[in-house]
Structures are given as C-alpha cells and as structure tokens.
Request: fold
Amino acid sequence: MNYLIDQPAAGKSPCGTLIFSHGAGAPMDSDYMQALTTELNAVGMAVVRFEFPYMQQRREMGKKRPPDRAPILLDCWREVYGELSNRTDLPQPILIGGKSMGGRMASMVADELGAAGLCCFGYPFHAPGKPEKMRTEHLLAIKTPTLIFQGTRDPFGKPDELAPIPFSDAVKIHWLEDGDHDLKPRKLSGLLQEEHLKTVAALVSELTRLG
Reply:
C-alpha cells in the first residue's frame, strides 16, 4: 500500500493522526485532499492518505475505473488501519475518515476497528435527487465519536432531508453555510472554501481530545 504521510506543521504540537481516504472520483493527491491536509497539518494533525485498489490501478494504467465493490473497499480500510494504527511515528490518537465515499466506508468499519474518532467530509447520505434512499442505517447505532462536515447545498444530503433522522448520539453534523459537496460556497455568499476548511480542521483537532 502506498501512503502520503504529512506530519504537523513546524512548531505545532502534534495532537493526533487522521487516516484519510479519497472519494469515488478523485485520487489521494487531488486539490481538495491536499488543501484539507494542509489545514489539518496547520492545527497539529498528522494526515495519512491512501488509495483504494481501483484508484491505484487507475493511476498505474492511466485509465478510469469504477470504484471497487463495498467488500473490497472495507477490507482495504481494515488492512490500512491494521498497518498504521500502531506505528510509533504517527501521533496518537488515530482518527479515521474520508471524502464522500471514503468517509462512508470508514464509517462502516469505525466501531469494528476501534478508531478513536471518525470524520466524514461531504457524506453521501443519498444519491443526488434520491433522498428517499438514505444510506444511514449504521449511523443510527454507531458508537465511535463521529463528526460529519456537510455543506448546506450538498446534493448528497441537505439539512431538511436529514433533520428527521434519529442519528446516534455519537454523531454530530456540522453544517458549512452555502457549501457544496466539496464544502465550497458560491462567490455571492461572501464566504470562502478556505475558511470552511480551516473551521473543519479546528473541529477535527478538538475531536482528538476525546480519543
């Protein structure tokens, strides 16, 4: 398994590590993944990025491939966590999480792995336009402390669609005003994606205190 490991920024006291997986369509070194990693490093988090098998094959072969089926993605998470959770060069506690699909897969194994916390960035609660088909059943009983960062314009899950769902007490959803699936607001909002990512990073670092 290939990893990108980014340690906390110089002069920052390490507060924990996030094992961070990508979404369905973009690799671990996408602009979004890099921008959020930079903000996390700035608040004292180490970040380890990795790629699921289909994305590694896409990188090696130069051809787009659809995501692997869920059992393969979940086994990949188990392998990655097993390799990284006891490394002495990674600050404790160890959180897991990911962008969109990567975060959803992490959420499905968080309790099993015993992760100190879970962070999901743009969770795919449902396919766009299909709020009647929610992917939330396991989030009703999850025990791992969980932060979900969601833009209020995210077509994969908006505030009014999620309000009726009886999420576990371990789940906290933090809404980013006017953000899309990448937490990016429109120019007319007067807000910046960079500001949202800084807010997200600060809240992730706070979650480490529960670990």
Notes: Residues 85 and 119 are 16 Å apart (CA to CA). The mean pLDDT is 96. The longest strand covers residues 16-21. The radius of gyration is 16 Å.
